[in-house]
Amino acid sequence: MVEAPVRENDGLALRPYQVEAVRALRAAFAAGKRAPVYQLPTGGGKTVVFAHIAREGAKRGTRVLILVHRRELLLQGSRALREVGLDHGLIAPTLPPSDAQVRIASVQTLVRRLDHVSPPDLVVIDEAHHAVAGSWRRVLEQWPRARVLGVTATPARLDGKGLGVHVDGPFDHLVLGPSVRALTEAGFLAPADVYAPPMKADLSGVGTRLGDFDRREMRLRMDKPVISGDAVDHYLRLTPGRPAIAFCTSVEHAEHVAEAFTDADVPAASIDGGMSDVERDGVLEDLARGEIQVLTSCEIVSEGFDLPAVEVAILLRPTQSLTLYLQQVGRVLRPAPGKASATVLDHVGNVKRHGLPDADRSWDLDGAMRRSAGEAPVCRCPECFACHPPARMCPVCGHVYGGEGREGLRVDPDAQLERVSRAPRDLWTPVRERMRQAHIEQGRCRTFEELVDLGIRRGYGNPRAWARNVWRARHRSRRLGPSVPEAAADEVSA
Ligand SMILES: [Zn+2]
């Protein structure tokens, strides 16, 4: 993979794999396909790809309609198009109908105005794994001659079924982008450290509805103080002070988890779909500035919202959907200045269920990803709870697996071998080593002020709050030593 972006004469910088995507999608249309879908991991920059195609098409007179699946994502989508320099009009309830060459709309708004919107030649569907519900069908049937371009990180429905026309989906061709691992190796995504502390949630006997855990039952099992408290403890132990998103099962659950963090003096807030754009943007800005450390949410941030500064994903929503799992962990993989790695804290067994975020996955339009259900080749260290590819020794804490380690490897032996050969240890070692060094560096700080200095050197948004959390976690776990120095605590709250 060539590293330097290719800057085209229109000013839109395309990375080499994005150039390749544009070429492959054009070739698909030229070969008579009506509706190709492009797969690229979250954070890989799919907006740049379809914006480029939209602009080039618009120059030749093609009318392009870009669709997002939720009203809340319209402004975010429009902003992303502006950032890549694509002129466009908006179709929104409060605006007069736009007749711009390139338009963006949410499906909800569009279905109510179908007869008033001039027909497009190309319909671009962002987050295309949603494109099977009834309203999408109406939109695509309204303009049977329009070409369709889907983009998604996970070309499968949330229930695991495929997106292909032969399984009643909208797409007739799949173009695959580079894998999570290839993007990580090239520095386009942040490497993820994964921890799965022992589960406090009891999911035994929870039924399945529409291909995922029964929502109501899952809420009852997950929304408990002991589980929220556990999430707080592990956040303070493993990733104190780092900006985090917690994925919850309901709006109330998200609020309760935010309260649990706040009670432990970790600034936290929840967001939900009922908030206005201004309210929601305010919370997201607080998170970006470090005034909030933990953001909790039911669904609103699982996709569409671009928050590169967030480093930690706290999984509190069990899911049987590989698509939902990858959308959630994908939120934290985008690189950002000062971000050495991302961390996934899995409290619900999703990593065990679906594999590590950068596991090799083979996508197709049939929905064959269902075969990945069940035990994935992941080893979980009984000492530090790190999840890693099968190995004799934990790459984080050095724990050597004896008899008990075999239990963590309850997988098909062939799959293990394949997995090990695809994930040589040397890919992991630099990340683990960096983490280990970071822990050692932190441990060397004897005083509160030394911790603050370290937080400043590491470029944390709120080094004092971070230091205070490390200090508290340290003395909580040892059950001895001084509490946070009074003066320091005052400064933090001032
Ligand atoms: Zn370990």
Question: What would you note in describing this structure?
Answer:
With 494 residues, the chain is of the alpha/beta class. The protein contains 18 helices and 19 strands. It has helices at residues 16-30, 46-59, 73-83, 107-113, 134-142, 180-185, 215-222, 225-238, 251-263, 277-289, 322-330, 350-354, 403-407, 413-422, 425-444, 448-457, 463-478, 486-493, and strands at residues 6-7, 13-14, 36-39, 64-68, 89-91, 102-106, 122-126, 147-152, 173-176, 192-195, 208-209, 212-213, 244-247, 268-271, 294-297, 312-315, 342-346, 379-380, 386-388. Strand 16, helix 11 (322-330) and strand 17 form a beta-alpha-beta unit. It is globular. The chain starts with 5 loop residues before the first strand and ends with a helix. The chain binds zinc ion (ZN). Residues 381, 383-384, 386, 394, 396-397, 399 line the site of zinc ion.
Query: How much helix is in the residues?
Result: 25-40%
What is the count of β-strands? Answer: 19
The CATH topology of the largest domain comes to Rossmann fold
- Average of per-residue pLDDT values: 81
CATH superfamily of the largest domain: P-loop containing nucleotide triphosphate hydrolases
Which hetero compounds are present in the coordinates?
Answer: zinc ion
Q: What is the global morphology?
A: globular
Structural class: alpha/beta
Largest sheet geometry: 8 strands, mixed
Low-confidence stretches: 1-9, 370-375, 405-431, 477-482, 486-494
Radius of gyration: 23 Å
CATH class division of the largest domain:
Alpha Beta
Strand sequence of the main sheet, in spatial order? 14-15-13-16-17-10-19-18
Strand content: 5-15%
Alpha-carbon distance between the termini? 49 Å
